[in-house]
Design brief:
With 344 residues, the protein is mostly beta strands. It contains no helices and 21 strands. The chain is 0% helix and 72% strand. The strands form 2 sheets. It has a 19-stranded antiparallel sheet, with no helix packed on it.
């Protein structure tokens, strides 16, 4: 028997003028475990599409959240972000902080007890002739634990990102990053030991135009990771037969070789989307990987009764491949979700 639980979410937002807004959110309940849990928050967005002149926009965003739990005490998370963009330049500066006691039982947080500072900047040049666009970009992320210890950092440079008028695209990227591993973990038969790891990775990708009935993608990554050598290859394809059905396939191979051992896994995916009408559609996903030997699937039916009012039917299913090669069912779940919007 399943225990019943009372859960609730309230979200209120109001536009202030044409380009700004304020809002609040409140949640109550604990989906798993006993005890009470509440989250309260407020956010604001303000900016302008014309302050710096036509075609130039800037926006600022800020939020603060607090949690109160009968089992974990109180916690706070907050963040601010500023962005600017025009036809040539795009910039974004962001700071996020999540307290070590922040615990939104009804919701999701990537990692607690962490501060993050990030900067992103890109330059876009509009081409001529067969060349539509050329761009270069730079991203930097710096994360620390609440005690000031560096958790990770990333420097990413898109050296080349070219798109032709046909819609085909080629990109070349280099990344330098650091990860601190607090405790050992296993990747297949390979054990990654605790410590700080510096890595450099080079990536190249090719994409055909998404305006074609058949689209293909290819990506290759090479570099060092966890003191070893990483090689990764991804390939995919999308076929649009008509407005009703879209078929997408993907395959990737990931291999890591170190002095302590090696690891390799293959992942295959198949997605089938059916769009009966603009208001009614079904999305299906199947995937299998050679490490877990698990075949899992998900189906989602979405029905837009009217704008703002939607009904979802979700299905999860899975099978485990045995050493003899047979497939045993492991998962079969169904969920109904309704969204109803009140405007006043």
């Amino acid at each position: 028997d399943l225990d019943s639980r009372d859960l609730g979410v309230l979200r209120v937002s109001k536009n202030v003028g044409e380009e700004s807004s304020v809002g609040m959110i409140a949640t109550g309940g604990r989906p798993t475990g006993d005890g009470s849990s509440y989250t309260f928050g407020a956010d604001a967005k303000w900016g302008s599409n014309s302050f710096f002149g036509p075609g130039k926009s800037f926006y600022n965003y800020a939020y603060v959240l607090g949690t109160s739990s009968s089992t974990g005490g109180d916690g706070v998370a907050y963040g601010v972000e500023s962005s600017y963009r025009d036809d040539t330049w795009r910039h974004r500066l962001r700071y996020l902080a999540t307290g070590k006691d922040f615990d939104p039982a009804l919701g999701f947080v990537r990692r607690i007890g962490q501060d993050e500072l990030s900067l992103a900047s890109s330059y876009n040049w509009r081409g001529s002739g067969a060349l539509r666009r050329y761009s270069v970009s730079f991203d930097a992320i710096y994360r620390t634990f609440s005690d000031g210890l560096v958790e990770s950092w990333l420097l990413e440079l898109d050296l080349l990102d070219i798109e032709w008028n046909t819609g085909d695209r080629i990109a070349l990227q280099v990344r330098r990053f650091f990860d601190r591993i607090p405790s050992a973990f296993d990747v297949g038969d390979l054990t990654i030991v605790p410590g700080g790891y510096d890595s450099t990775r080079l990536s190249a990708s090719l994409e055909s135009s998404d305006r074609r009935p058949l689209r293909a993608t290819l990506q290759a990554n090479h570099g060092d990771l966890y003191g070893g050598t990483l090689r990764e290859v991804r390939a995919g394809g999308i076929a649009r037969f008509n407005s009703l059905i879209q078929l997408e396939t993907g395959y990737s191979r990931y291999s890591l070789e170190t002095q302590r051992g090696s690891f390799q896994t293959d992942l295959a995916q198949l997605r089938v989307d059916l769009n009966f009408t603009p208001e009614l559609g079904v999305r299906n996903l199947l995937q299998y990987d050679t490490t877990s030997r698990n075949l899992s699937g998900q189906s989602r039916l979405r029905w837009i009764v009217e704008p703002g009012n939607e009904l979802y039917l979700l299905g999860l299913y899975g099978w485990q491949r045995t050493s003899e090669g047979s497939m045993l069912p492991t998962t079969l779940d169904a969920t109904i979700k309704a969204i109803w919007t009140l405007r006043f």
